[in-house]
Amino acid sequence: MKIILKNIQKLSKKQYIYIAIIAFCLLTSIIFVYNNHSLYKRPIGQITEISLEEKDEVVDRYGNEDEVFKQQIIAHILNGEQKGEEVYITNEYSSSGSYDHKYEAGQEVFIHIQNHTTEDGETSASITDVKRDKYLVMIAWVFILTLLLIGKRQGLFASVSLAINIILLSYALDLYVHTSINLLWISGILAILFTVFSLLLVNGFNEKTYAAIIATLLGTFFALFVAYVTMWLTNENGLRYEEMQFLTRPYDIVFLAGLFIGSLGAVMDVAISISSAMFELYHKNNNISPDALKKSGFDIGRDIMGTMTNILFFAYISGSIPTLILYLKNHSQLGFTLSINLSLELARALAGGIGIVITIPIGLYTTLYFIERKRAKS
Amino acid sequence: MNVLFVLAAILFILMLTIGGAKGARSFISLFLNFIVILVTVIFMASPLVDPILLTMIACVVISCINLFYINEVNSKTTVAFISTIITIGILFFFIYFITKKVQIQGFGEEEFEEIRIFSLYIGIDFIRLSASVIIMSTIGAITDVAISITSPMKEIFHHNPHLKSKELFTSGMTIGKDILGSNTNTLFFAFIGGYMALLIWFKDLSYSFGEVVNSKIFSSEMIMIMCAGIGIALVIPIAAGINAWYLVRTKQKEMKNDE
In chain A, which among 129-188 make CB contacts under 8 A with chain B? Predict the structure, then answer.
């Protein structure tokens, strides 16, 4: 307690204002998200009473054992014309819960109210989804506060650039869905905007950033090009688009766009690591030879290429684990399961890796060019 | 010719020409990690083993591959390894609590077409599984941040051996802050790229803002990105702290031995 008090006394006036602003935003957003029911058109119910009706042990046709429960729920409508009324809901859920939910009293859920009433005059309804917005806002605050606490200014920049990127992406996808512009063109422009924004915001306007921007764009476009040519040459043999079958759009284009955007962050990271390290060396010693710069650029590249490809690999593959397990538990062959669910993820990871590795020499030579230009000027 | 095979061959050649022996090790590490995930998934399909426990074991093995195999066993990688495991341990509690509370486990209604033909009562706890997935998808980034902090810190201490552990900790934090943004960015784009098809599907269905925010797929995606960011931020003070303490202590021990 004493330490906290001491730290509070140490704060400057400016920091007080920052903390006040953050606290204000935090409180308003949480109050808002707890009281925004009237903004939703879909009826929202708060669960007031729950009783467990039945519990069954089930064994499916593959011998998997599970338990299925039946809940009787009474919910209180919080918005719309029927606000204040009570509805009766029957909910079935399983212990595994892959496509069902166990509800608890106090929870808020979106409901679909059935028009007919039962003999007792009760209105029946069904639950369509959980109201997740308030949790999302709270986790977002934990995220922002952790980043601010540990990263200070850089944490702020990271949060801001994340928010900008999400808005840009949403806008770009709107553009794609509502017009007939090719998705690859949109992704290309999007990639340029993402790169320029993210790198300039964090590193500022200087040669180091310009070199990284050029290297990032060349590197990702190269990865896209390699993936495109490979798919064309091999007739897309080995790629299974089953996981995208809900889409009514060309699968291969959507896949390439995902591959392109997905590798962008990792490539950016490699490009800025190389250019900032090389500029650092140049600033420390203006007479350093191009060969020495090249060598240390390659050293840094070698150090990061393994971990960077692994980051992409885990980020892509892990998301498929639940589907893999569902397939395996339904007695699908391992080879079939893997080829259907992992072919796109593996291709993305490999192409992203190609982008990462090729960015090392590209980044190195662009940075060298900028350094030599600077040297010639001075 | 298979697309995956061609891409893997190109990646291998590139890694070998640009990275030499270390490049070859990096490629093999990808392959090893793939096998680890595969074995984990096969074990997870058994209802007797807890998915979270399995993921913890898998994370230990993966960190060993990423740190000790690609680099080598030394004080930098050992401290990075310890910090990774501590961070993941803390993160697990947080993530499990969230997946349970927000109910983002399993499949969203947008994916129903795909899973319709399957029996869904398979006796596997999908809440635990979801928590495992989130951890697993960030493990690569967490080990990366850990090693990116411990390795330059040792360099700094080598050049300025008189530094106190508190000053050393501060310089570790400074390094960490610089990589915080780029690493969250890397994961953000990777997740977005992986979910491109579903995001377009959302737009095709012309969901309202409220529907998007509350849908299971979107919220689990956002939670994944934010938990990854929290994990990356968390490992920074942990790695910097342990490393500062360790470096100064070994130095003092050496000095005592010299006397």
Answer: 129-133, 135-136, 139-140, 142-143, 146-147, 149-155, 157-158, 161-162, 165, 169, 173-174, 176-177
